[in-house]
Amino acid sequence: GPMRLAYRNAQNVLEDVVDHDGGDRRLDGVDAMDTLAAYKDVAQLVVDRDAKKQRYRDACKLYPKDDKLPRGAWPGSTDWLAVSRSNELYVKHVETSFMFVKREEFRLVGTWEAKPMEEYDS
What we know:
There is one protein chain. The chain is built from two helices and four strands, in the order ααββββ. By secondary structure, it is α+β, with helices and mostly antiparallel strands. A four-stranded antiparallel beta sheet has the order 1-2-3-4, with no helix packed on it. The chain starts with a helix and ends in an 11-residue tail after the last strand.
């Protein structure tokens, strides 16, 4: 998804900058001030990459793990749902039980029906 792609792109940018052969030449240490500036830039790239990685990991915890269920957000909300091919809507429910063991399941919350737009034009 887009979060994984953003994380991988940030990782690739970081790798390109620190690459010994084609990366940022300021990291060679020829000029102390340039090297310090390059360290700052690399540190910012690491912070950016780590933030995107954390967003990706957090999203992995929220998205359904069953690839058979199409995923998406509730209309007008950021809460995630899964829609089955049999027109059933499921929400992810996470329950923390004794000893902080988390159990997650998808709970049926309803069904849906799609009608062509022509039926509403009158």
